[in-house]
Amino acid sequence: MTSGESPLRIGLVALFMTALATAQLTASKVLMFELPFALPIAGSSLVLPGAALAYALTFLASDCYAELYGRRAATVVVNVGFVMNFVLLALVWSTILSPVFPDSPVGAAEFRSVMASSTGVVVGSLFAYVVSQNWDVFVFHRLREYTDGEALWLRNIGSTASSQLIDTAIFVTVAFVVFQGLPPQAALALGVGQYVFKLLIALLDTPVVYAIVGAARRADPDLRAVHAD
């Protein structure tokens, strides 16, 4: 079995696409967690979209994929994921507009009120996604070149931290301010909470990235070569 057909490669793509779709469908619910300390702007509560964890997983998957298979391959996955957002939006609206069974446990109005809100989320995510994910791949490989293939932790954290900042700013502005009319102060608190959470995930997932990349390279020596493309 070649590396191009490996279960790991398929699994990373599957994780990326599954987490991406989950993020689009869960982002409209805003979560709030009480903190034992206060954050600037956000205060003592961590406010973030329900999609925060799922979307953070897309960066873990894309960083592992970029490290193992190269910038060009990672860019392809990112851009295919971008197109799949339109497929998700089309499927959601085809279900919303379809006639409902009279005894459906979820009524048409309730279903629409929840799922239609994902439209603004998807639109905001499309703008944020195409910029931040491509930036993530770009920075990841620039840091790889700068460190001559060493310091995986630096490119994982550096690329994710910068791309998540871009993603958060675009996503919250479009999805929540433009489409849902969230007041600017509340949007700012939401953005701070979301970014702090994503940054924490970036720090915590670094050992996971090391474990996945290390296991893959032990299983397939060809993956030890530096991908410069």
In short:
The chain is mainly alpha-helical. The protein is built from eight helices and two strands, in the order H-E-E-H-H-H-H-H-H-H.
Q: Which terms summarize this structure?
A:
single chain, 229 residues, mainly alpha, Arp2/3 complex 21 kDa subunit ARPC3, two-stranded antiparallel sheet, 2 strands, 7% strand, globular
Can you walk through the features of this model?
By secondary structure, the chain is mainly α. The chain has one domain: Arp2/3 complex 21 kDa subunit ARPC3, CATH 1.10.1760. Helices cover 72% and strands 7% of the residues. It has eight helices and two strands. It has a two-stranded antiparallel sheet with strand order 1-2. Strand 1 and strand 2 form a beta hairpin. The chain starts with 6 loop residues before the first helix and ends in a 10-residue tail after the last helix. The relative contact order is 0.16.
Which architecture name does CATH use? Orthogonal Bundle
Cα-atom radius of gyration: 19 Å
Output mean pLDDT: 84
Task: Please provide the count of β strands.
Answer: 2
At the first level of CATH, the class is Mainly Alpha
CATH third-tier fold name: Arp2/3 complex 21 kDa subunit ARPC3
Question: What distance separates the N and C termini?
Answer: 23 Å
> Mind summarizing the main beta sheet?
2 strands, antiparallel
Question: What percent strand?
Answer: 5-15%
Oligomeric nature of the chains: single chain
Helix content range: over 70%
* Whole-number total of structural domains: 1
Q: Identify low-pLDDT runs.
A: none
**Strands ordered across the widest β-sheet:** 1-2
- SSE order in H/E notation? HEEHHHHHHH
Shape: globular
Q: From the helix content, strand content and strand pairing, which structural class follows?
A: mainly alpha
Number of helices: 8
